[in-house]
Design goal:
The complex is a heterodimer of chains A (289) and B (301). Chain A is mainly alpha-helical and 289 residues long. Chain A is built from 15 helices and no strands. Chain A folds into two domains: 53 residues, no CATH class; 216 residues, MetI-like (MetI-like fold, Orthogonal Bundle), CATH 1.10.3720. Chain A is globular, with a radius of gyration of 24 Å. In chain A, 44% of the residues are buried. The longest helix of chain B is centred in the N-terminal third of the chain and has 40 residues. With 301 residues, chain B is mainly alpha-helical. The chains are: A mainly alpha (289), B mainly alpha (301). The interface between A and B is large, with 104 and 111 residues.
């Protein structure tokens, strides 16, 4: 579909449109990429160079001290490692449980007929309308009563599965061939084994898409850890950055080094599995059926 | 034979229930119970760590909020942010998606490049832009170059208008690529034959866009608009970080930030819950609108 490349009768209009489209695309490219380049180059500069006018885009040498400061933290207690491990633990647990629970629920909804199925489906979909920000105060009270502050359980439990994941898995599994399932049933396979050995291995793209979406949401999660993790040891990476920014606003180089370090896991995932990021976004536009 | 068949069916329907039950219990405990509980708490003057039984206020918290200028300021901040962010987001991402689809080369590269800011967490995005908006930072340098006002500090993080604009810009930057990708998926699902037919009939690109692409893309546009709107209503990270780093709170005191400060910093849980319920009702309204419009405008190719 090459709308703009088509030869039209008016040749000059065509080339003008082409030029205009190139300029707009380039401007948007600069706008999106420049802050990322800025983050990386500034993380390699001493603070006095970062806020120099005009900004020098190529650092003179690599100012490693920024990264040492970023990791050591203001108190020099190297809480960064602990916090990044916390983030990894929370994000991975939530991802595994979301994939399993959303998978099995989506499978139940897509491939089994039972009374009340539509009501169950609608009830789960209805939870999509409840923003987390609206239920965080009651959840916070419950977590306090159960003494779940500053614990992995407290950070993980509210996110074990989500309605969007169930929806996505259901949509994906509706087209899963029934004959295939029936054949394995006739062979005497149990239902749980069918799910783990037949269904899950055959929906890897959907799993990867949902896993990346979930991991990312958790890696980005700020508001709930802010409520539940007050102790330094239980903080996650976003909280580490908030603390660093609030205390050390003046050390620009170290600030950018923290930002870059915190983004490395997501950047690696993005560059190695960009297709799944993109398919995660486009689930929305193909949600018919 | 028939009996046996229904036996299998019965067994399978039981398994259906087994498979959905764990999630159903989860949603009961972590979605339905808390929202009902929030509605209940919003009727009390409840303070955390208080041993006294909470006073029943009826709709007192709501009455208080509706006459509180702080609450209305938050509503204003939220709606200004939402309108100022989602409208440019939808328009610009649609434009970029159409332009990208008109290219032969570089489609993939441009999509991924535009998408890359969405990969960063919102805290990281806010921190990067805080540096860019620094009085000596590149935002001032570039703007001064563009409008030829050397040495002027535009107070990106300090002036009431500018700090609102800055939060919108950060959000716009972070999500533009995300919506470009959604629109491209929508555009790719429009059958090629329609374009061919239009060209044979002698349509020029502009006509093709307004008469074919846009009408067929209407469901996607509506869906994306409401999704973007719902996202914007919940914005929190950028505003929180800017305030932490010293920006004035009032202009960007969006409703989620107000809920957080009222509930967690000031320990006024009843009042914070009342605000949560108001946010919930607003979002419910827009979700309902989404369902209504997407039903009415389903297009078949």
């Amino acid at each position: 579909m090459s709308l703009l490349q088509e030869k039209t009768e008016n040749k000059s209009v065509f080339s003008f449109m082409w030029l205009l489209s190139t300029l707009i695309l380039l401007a948007a490219l600069i706008f999106t990429i420049i802050p990322l380049i800025f983050m990386f180059t500034a993380s390699a500069m001493p603070s006095k160079d970062i806020l120099k006018m005009p900004y020098r885009w190529v650092p003179r040498g690599f100012h490693w001290q920024n990264y040492f400061k970023a990791i050591a933290g203001n108190d020099g207690n190297y809480m960064f490692f602990r916090n990044i491990i916390n983030s990894v633990i929370v994000a991975c647990s939530v991802t595994v449980s979301t994939v399993l629970l959303a998978g099995i629920t989506g499978y139940g909804l897509a491939k089994f007929r039972f009374r009340g199925r539509n009501i169950v489906f609608l009830a789960i979909m209805a939870t999509m309308m409840i923003p987390f920000e609206a239920i965080m105060i009651p959840l916070y009270l419950v977590a306090t009563n159960l003494h779940l502050q500053n614990s992995y359980g407290g950070l993980i439990f509210p996110f074990l599965v989500n309605a969007f994941g169930v929806f996505m898995m259901r949509q994906f599994l509706i087209t899963f061939p029934d004959e295939f399932l029936d054949a394995t049933r006739i062979d005497g396979a149990g239902e749980i084994r069918i799910f783990f050995n037949i269904v899950l291995p055959n929906i890897k793209p959907a799993i990867a898409t949902l896993a990346i979406l979930t991991f990312r949401t958790q890696w980005d999660n700020l508001i709930w850890p802010l409520l539940i993790a007050q102790s330094e040891k239980m903080k996650t990476v976003p909280l580490y950055i908030v603390k660093f920014a609030a205390e050390k606003y003046t050390d620009e180089g170290a600030m950018m080094a923290v930002a870059f370090l915190a983004s490395i896991p997501m950047l690696i995932l993005f560059f190695s599995m960009s297709n799944y990021f993109v398919s995660g976004a486009s689930v929305y536009s193909s949600r018919k059926g | 034979m028939k009996k046996k068949y229904s036996g299998i069916e019965k067994k399978l329907s039981r398994w259906g229930w087994y498979f959905v039950t764990p999630s159903l219990i989860f949603f009961m405990l972590f979605s339905f119970y808390p929202i009902i509980n929030a509605a209940y708490i919003s009727l009390f003057r409840k303070k955390i760590l208080s041993l006294k039984a909470p006073d029943f206020l009826g709709l007192g918290n709501y009455k208080y909020l509706l006459s509180s200028s702080d609450f209305w300021n938050s509503m204003r901040a939220t709606f200004v942010f939402t309108l100022g962010t989602f409208i440019p987001l939808v328009i610009v991402s649609l434009l970029l998606a159409v332009l990208i689809m008109g290219r032969n080369k570089g489609k993939k590269f441009l999509q991924l490049a535009y998408y890359s800011p969405a990969v960063l967490s919102s805290v990281v995005a806010a921190v990067i832009w805080m540096m860019i908006f620094d009085p000596r930072g590149i935002a001032n340098q570039w703007l001064n170059f563009l409008v030829n006002t050397p040495g002027v500090d535009h107070l990106w993080l300090a002036k009431s208008f500018m700090v609102q604009f800055s939060t919108m810009l950060v959000y716009f930057w972070k999500y533009i690529g995300y919506f470009v990708v959604i629109f491209i998926a929508g555009l790719a699902s429009i059958p090629h034959s329609l374009y061919e037919a239009a060209k044979i009939d002698g349509a020029v690109p502009r006509q093709i866009f307004w008469r074919i692409t846009l009408p067929l893309l209407k469901p996607t546009v509506l869906l994306v608009s409401i999704m973007a709107m719902l996202q914007c209503l919940k914005t929190f990270g950028t505003q929180y970080l800017f305030v932490q780093a010293g920006s004035p709170q009032a202009p960007i005191n969006v409703i989620t930030l107000n809920i957080y400060n009222t509930g967690i910093r000031d320990h006024l849980l009843g009042r914070a819950s009342a605000m949560s319920i108001i946010l919930f009702v607003i979002m419910l309204f827009f979700t309902w609108l989404q369902f209504k419009t997407s039903k009415a405008d389903d297009v078949d190719y």
